[in-house]
Amino acid sequence: MTIRLSGLAKEFGDFTAVHPLDLTIPEGSFFALLGASGCGKTTTLRMIAGLEEPTAGSVLLGDDDITALPPHRRPVNTVFQNYALFPHLDVHDNVAFGLRRRGIRSVRKQVDEMLELVELGGMARRRPRQLSGGQQQRVALARALINQPRVLLLDEPLGALDLKLRRQMQLELKRIQTEIGITFVHVTHDQEEAMTMADTVAVMRGGRVEQLAAPAELYENPRTAFVANFLGTSNLLTARVTAADADELRLDASGSPLRLPAARGNGVATDPGGQLLVGVRPEKITVTHGADADGVAAGRNRLDGRIRDASYLGVSTQYLVDTPACPAFAVYRQNTDPDPRLVPGADVVLHWDPAHTFGLDAAQDADAGTGEDAT
Amino acid sequence: MTAVVTPGAPAAPPGTPGAERPPGRRPRRRLTPYWLLLPAALWLAVFFVAPLVYQASTSVQTGSLEEGYRVTWHFATYGEVLERYGEHFLRSFGYAAAATALCLLIGYPLAYMIAFRAGRWRNVLLVMVIAPFFTSFLIRTLAWKTILSDGGPVVGALDVLHVLDVTSRLGLTSDDRVLATPLAVVCGLTYNFLPFMILPLYGSLERIDPSLHEAARDLYATPATTFRKVTFPLSLPGVVAGTLLTFIPASGDYINAQLLGSPNTQMVGNAIQKQFLNVLDYPTAAAMSFVLMALILVAVTVYMRRAGTEELV
């Protein structure tokens, strides 16, 4: 069922957790609210669940305004961050809790089926604390799903699991969502989790939605420096517009000419002389040793530089390259045919297809979304 | 009471895990738990077990104060005690049960409020709960004598509100007085033991993760159902601990009956005190103490079985 948030806002005293927010979550979608802690994503989720009362605005489920409904009368269920399983009830009674509250007497068959779905068949009589983290997580999921909610809300559901289990549960959640086809709203601070699972991601920051798009679109064409840095890594450098036509901007970055397709400029300053931030992802860049610089195809964006640092990561090697335009340019190079000359101190040429360049408004902090901001 | 709580030897079977340790370090490691038990064990041996044995021997003595008492294995004293003081025992347990029930009724909402709603006032309220302990038990009970005095504002108000009519009909008060009636004794017991109910209740309520309430609300439980199905079951350890800490000392108490009651409201504690200190009939007093202890032990065992709290942490 479609969820529509209109002007939804929440203030705690002087602190605005969520600025008036308009958001439509289409029926059957896997929607992720992504952001660092304190960005308002959990508050937004809790307002949909009814656990937090909005200061302003409304929550619509389909055509029904549910803003004033208490949580127990909303057809949505939540998987809580710490699972919040009832410690005094066994797995069966935990899962049956919602059905029983709605006066359904014979729950055995439904509970068994649901436990099968989450692969906990023989665990019905165990107590929550006798289960591993991953099993508890699946009980929490079963306990919510058995009620056939119109919308399932997931609050950092995988946060407490170790990396391997988290990967496995990501796929599992995605499978279950595809199987039953209800709307999932998933809150997470893990950009990889959001990208793997969701069809639409809303990146939140400081109580506002920074950008809303499909994962690939977010990654390939971030619209703000925060999104560029928060999702993966970006190299951002300041450049000046030298010429512009309908298809392309010509730029100058500390003496190096660069090209940017007009469509990827996010509508920022296109007048010659204007400043903008130019970005490119590290894996789009090819690093070529200075001795082979003549072999670099014409028409590619190129920067000269010197390798400062190289870290071997197995699949790839990560280089930090100092260029006049930008110190510590990050570049990933696949280890398919290693070049032994690419060591710290070597002069190199960095070059990439201009189509992979994106432009951002220069009036923002190029480091937003990195470091402590991106916990 | 102490006998119920005192743990025996450490629960883990000694020896089995030690088998893999190097032989040189084994004895010391295995003895550590016993060293830790030693101070408490010594204390209990000197101040609990020894007096208990002495008292047991006293209870089967015969004789008189002038000629001295000798152990004659006279178990008949126990029968006499039950016959003569049955009423006192019943009264003790009745008053203690009433006071425990009142403590639970008054204490649970308060503990709930402190645990979930008090916010920054939490510590202030907790200090206020234990504040009465800064004054002596005796003084506080004497203060109740003034509060409930005949013709005082409390009695006057209860009279105007016709509460006294109801309590008279229930046999709790008589002659438009509160003092020297069962009601006064129960009130005194309730007041004096209330903190022992509130603190364990608060302890178990405070440990409940608030997200469990939210989970219950999210799963279609009304606030009332959330309390019935989640909060209350999870607070049961506190309820059990609180009722035991209230009921056990209340049933052996004699100060409240002494100061607030009348000869008709004497509890078994008063009878024991009289036998020991006034009549100087030590065997009877000792036998009464043992009967009281045994009855409490049985009551507590039955209660713990029924409450089935082993499954709860």
Characterization of this structure:
- The complex is a heterodimer of chains A (375) and B (313).
- By secondary structure, chain A is of the alpha+beta class.
- Chain A has 2 domains: 3-224, 3-Layer(aba) Sandwich (Rossmann fold), CATH 3.40.50; 233-292 and 299-362, Beta Barrel (OB fold (Dihydrolipoamide Acetyltransferase, E2P)), CATH 2.40.50.140.
- Chain A is 21% helix and 34% strand.
- Chain A has 8 helices and 20 strands.
- Chain A has helices at residues 41-49, 91-101, 108-117, 133-145, 163-180, 191-197, 215-220, 225-230; strands at residues 3-12, 15-25, 30-34, 56-61, 64-65, 76-79, 151-155, 183-188, 200-205, 208-213, 235-244, 248-253, 256-261, 275-280, 286-289, 301-312, 316-322, 329-334, 347-352, 358-361.
- In chain A, the strands form 4 sheets. Chain A has a 6-stranded mixed beta sheet, with helices on both faces. Chain A has a 5-stranded antiparallel beta sheet with strand order 13-12-11-14-20. A 5-stranded antiparallel beta sheet of chain A has the order 15-19-16-17-18, with no helix packed on it.
- In chain A, strand 11 (235-244) and strand 12 (248-253) form a beta hairpin.
- In chain A, helix 2 (91-101) runs parallel beside helix 4 (133-145) and helix 3 (108-117) packs across helix 4 (133-145).
- The model of chain B is unreliable at 1-21 (pLDDT under 50).
- In chain B, helix 8 packs across helix 10 and helix 12 runs antiparallel to helix 13.
- Helix content of chain B is 71%, strand content 3%.
- A two-stranded antiparallel sheet of chain B has the order 1-2.
- The two termini of chain B are 21 Å apart.
- Chain B is mainly alpha-helical.
- Chain B has 2 domains: 2-59, no CATH class; 77-311, MetI-like (MetI-like fold).
- At the A-B interface, strand 6 and helix 2 of A face helix 9 and helix 10 of B.
